[in-house]
Fold these 2 entries.
Entry 1:
Amino acid sequence: MLTGILVFVCGLIIGSFISAYTYRTPRNLSVIKGRSICPKCKTKISWYDNVPIVSYFFLKGRCRNCNKKISARYPLIEFSTAIIFLVSFFAQGLIRANVPWLMLIPDYIFLPFVIFLVSIFISIFVIDTEQQIIPDELIFIALCVAFLILILSGYPKFYENLLASLASALFLLLLHILTRGAGMGLGDVKLAILIGLLLGINLGVLSIFLSFILGGAVALFLLILKKAHLGQRIAFGPFMIASYFIVMFFGDKIVSSVFPF
């Protein structure tokens, strides 16, 4: 129980960093230098007004100085990160069962690695949703770490994961070329390399397939509500990440249900 609380608090802290990173990076602002400021009045935010979630509700979602509303994106990102961290902690056995090569990783590496991936994917999810870009540095860092751990795990089907990585990327690259970038961005192609490497052939294909289903369903829903129009570009990365999480937790059950033989 105590460990779960620590994981949740860790999620809030990292979520706070992610909320700052995803706001500053697309705007070419330093994440390391400078304290947080109110985007409305530019006043520096004191540490006691910057406690994840708590400060937001204590201040009733408004800046202490100018009383303007603070975006709900900050507590939402912090809380979502903490929840996914907590679910990942309690579902370690489920994750290992769904992604076989993770069974070969020692416990002291497994949880930090999963938390690292969750942080990367949440960052990509937020930035792509808000700005429709996927930072290359996030993909590169995640690929390097995942590739290294996959090699060190001694997974005998290592080359199958590499094949899944390349096949997923080539498929989306083909869509990018055929649609001239309108239907699929190069950032999505790079993200597919990472997801394919992590999930392997069967789960990788399932993840890509689910992302198209989720993307299509959301697009149709937005069209019905007249929140989008035909031809409007919608970020695809968030659907790829949502599918990744679904497969990470339930991939084995989905595959056995669809292909029971």
Entry 2:
Amino acid sequence: MEVVDSQTHPPHLFSVYSHTSPAAGDSVAHASTVMRFVRVTALLIFAFWVWRYMRDTEPLLHGSLLIFHEAGHVLFMPFGEFMMVLGGSLFQLMVPAFFVALFAIRRDGYAAAFASLYLAASFAGVAIYIADARAGELPLLGGERSNHDWTFLLIEMEMLDQDTTIGWYVMRVGKLIFWASLAAGGYFAWNYRSPAA
């Protein structure tokens, strides 16, 4: 009969460890499934909110984008009148685009999908503003028709008669980003991996 020397053979080599019991494994799997549904539901709720904004301007989402729009006018002021006026719409798009890039670099696809949906909303807001250049029906800060950014910009570019066409194309970009974000977000929600992993 062979005798095992516990000094040369550590005891753990001869022990059978059960890291998780079947019940614990089922519990972990259930929690994981629940979290998947929570993530998907959160994404769908935000997507529905963005879609409502894209169909009919929603005040809260519009207000958040307006903050970036007005900040853009100030930030681009040193670059001349044209860039100062364009800077509102430009910065309104740049902020959500920055967060899409940031989360993508961090390999957090789920968070990037949320930022992309916000970017889609921003494109929609700019599209609606462009298409209103001649009609002037949107309420503006200060209430003066002369404050309409895209009336000024399209006159400067001699493209005022194309306002609705340009707006249509910008809206199509927004909708493309929306559906791509929703599809990618659904995938990342279901197959979520922590950025740290």
